[in-house]
Every structure is written in C-alpha cells, then in structure tokens.
Design goal:
12-stranded mixed β-sheet, 17 strands, 2 domains, 23% helix, Aminopeptidase, alpha/beta
C-alpha cells in the first residue's frame, strides 16, 4: 500500500526514523506546494538503515514550517518497516532501490508501487530528482548520475565536485527518473553523522531555489568524474573475513580505507586460503563476468590486476551478502560538448 498525503502528518517533524512505521503505516508519498509548481522529487529510506535523508528532509521542513517552499516538493519515504528494525531490508523484502522501472528482478508488489510513483511524478512534470543514501564504508560525500548530460552534472556538483557515472545495477531510483528529468543520487557518508544531515539538508534547500539547470559544460576544475566499470561480489560459496579471522578470503582489516584512492596494479586486497578458492567476482555494465580482468591471486595474495579506484568497499558482512562488496571505477574524461 502507498500512502499519498498533501500535507505533513502530525508528528512528522519530531519523528525518528525507527518510529515512522507506527506514524505512517507504510511507504508514503508526500506532496507539498511551492512557488514554482514543477516539483523537486526526493526519496529517502529506500534502505531502512540509511536515515540521513529522512533527517535532512525533517530539518528542511522545520526550516520552512509555516512558510511557502520556493518550489513544490514531493517526498517519498520508503522502507519504513526496515527502518523500524534498523536494517537495510527485511528478510523476504526486495531491495527498495532495485525495483524501480527498468529493474531486471522478478516482478513484486514493490515494483508496481515504484512504477505508480514514477507515473505520478511524470504527470506532475517533475523538475529534478534526488535520491539520498548513506554507505557503510569510508567514503567521501559524492553524487552519482546515470547520464552524461550537463544538466545532471550541474545538479550533482551542487552537492559535491566528486561525481560517479554508472548504469548498473538496474532498477535504481535515479535510473528510473533519469528519463523524466535531471536525476542524481547523493551519498552522504555513514548514517548518524550530523555533518551528513546538514550537508544533505543544505543541498536540498539549494535545489529548491534552482530555477533552471544549465546545458553548458561544467568547468573541468569543478568536477572529478569517475565511471563505475564493475560491481564486486563475494561468491555465495566462499566464506570471508577481515584481518586475522578465518575465512576462504581474508580481506584487509581496513579495506574500506581504499575507497576513492587510485590504486596501482598489484595492490593487495587480502589473502586466499587454498588454491581452489575462486577469486572475487566482478561484473561489468553489460553483465559480463570480468573477474580475471581486475583480480589475480599471487602466492595466496588477492591483488588487483590493473589500476582502478574502489568505491563503497564495506566491512559490513550483511551488506556484502545482500548486495555487494563494492564497486570499481576509472576516471571519465568529460567531452566538452552540449548536453546529450
């Protein structure tokens, strides 16, 4: 069930993420008016344990309590059931950021819910879309886009000069909205950090004041653009650990400290216990297995075969099993052309 509201429910401005299930009862789409009628769409809590987006929205609504927003705003508050449990998703639930239109997962009621939201926002002539997330490893704040389009890049660099371009995985919110309007995902570091909430809130407020997104190129000195070239997974049959704990693959104890560092070929990621243990899996944007392109095992050491930059490498075993270990990126040279 999708709740659709035209004003904030009583208690929302004082609510905690864990209490939203009791307050809202389920996923909720909140439409708010503003001086400019084309709405900014914001999605939060697609992963229940990533609560910075909700607290940023709560702070923004507090700032404008009793005032008119500069622009209409539609807020989707997603997996409140998982948020109540402090989890990314519950057992038996699909990932709320893999079920938007374009998903390659088997159809679920959640797919239908997200398709309904996209259709509603298309009807309302959505101006721009922002999906707010946290991550579990050591990462900077950065924006993500799914199209090399200068409007999208301007929207992303309003949040951070570090921008990642990706087209996989399918079924993510930003990919679905990218066919309607400039769309970004913003990664706000780990949950529970006050500066992450402030950064996200200030960014959303800045988006509400944007009247137009330019089509001229972003200045090269204003952007560091990277392209996600592979998603990295640990094979289901392989056990893993960090540091000195036992496992088929033993990763470095501070593996997440490698995120957003340009690593040379030969950089060690961990150790492999046994010659028959498969290497890490890596899948490119077309779904091809490119494990051998990126990883090698040398005398029991798991190493990079080529120079890359990791992102979102995590030490959270549940996230690794439910989603992935992280991603590999390369620098993307931005061609100085008009929006594509």
């Amino acid at each position: 069930m999708l709740n659709i509201l035209e004003s904030p429910p009583a208690g929302l401005l004082d609510a905690e993420a864990v209490g939203l299930l009791e307050l809202l009862g389920g996923p909720t789409l909140l439409h708010l008016p503003g001086r400019s009628p084309e709405p900014l769409f914001v999605s939060v809590l697609l992963h229940g344990n990533e609560d910075t987006g909700f607290y940023a929205v709560r702070e923004l609504l507090r700032r404008y309590h009793g005032k008119t927003l500069p622009r209409a705003m539609s807020i989707f508050i997603g997996n409140v059931r998982a948020a109540a449990a402090g989890l990314r998703r519950l057992e038996g639930q699909p990932d709320y950021n893999r079920v938007w239109p374009g998903s390659d997962m088997p159809t679920t009621p959640e797919h239908e819910l997200m398709a309904r939201i996209v259709a509603e926002m298309e009807r309302r002539q959505v101006f721009a879309s922002v999906d707010v997330h946290n991550n579990t490893g050591i990462n900077p704040h950065y924006g993500c886009v799914n199209r090399i389009d200068h409007r999208y890049l301007h929207l992303a660099t309003l949040f951070s000069r570090t921008v990642v371009y990706f087209t996989r995985p399918r079924g993510v919110q930003s990919l679905a909205f990218s066919r309607l309007c400039p769309a970004v995902t913003v990664e706000c570091g780990k949950p529970g950090q006050p500066h992450g909430i402030r950064h996200a809130c200030d960014y959303l407020e800045a988006c509400l004041h944007v009247t137009d997104l330019p089509i001229h190129p972003v200045a090269p000195h204003d952007i560091d653009l990277f392209h996600t070239v592979a998603i990295v997974k640990v094979p289901e049959s392989v056990s893993f650990s960090f540091g000195e704990l036992p496992g088929d693959i033993r990763f470095l104890s501070e593996l997440d400290h490698l995120n957003f560092r340009e690593l040379a070929a030969g950089t060690q990621l961990g150790w492999v216990d046994g010659a028959s243990i498969p290497r890490l899996e890596a899948w490119d944007e077309t779904g091809r297995d490119v494990s051998e392109r990126y990883f090698t095992i040398e005398a029991g050491r798991l190493c990079l075969r080529r120079s890359v930059m990791p992102s979102m490498f995590t030490l959270d075993s549940q996230v690794i099993r439910q989603d992935c270990l992280g991603y590999l990126m390369e620098r993307y040279e931005l061609i100085d052309t008009e929006a594509e």
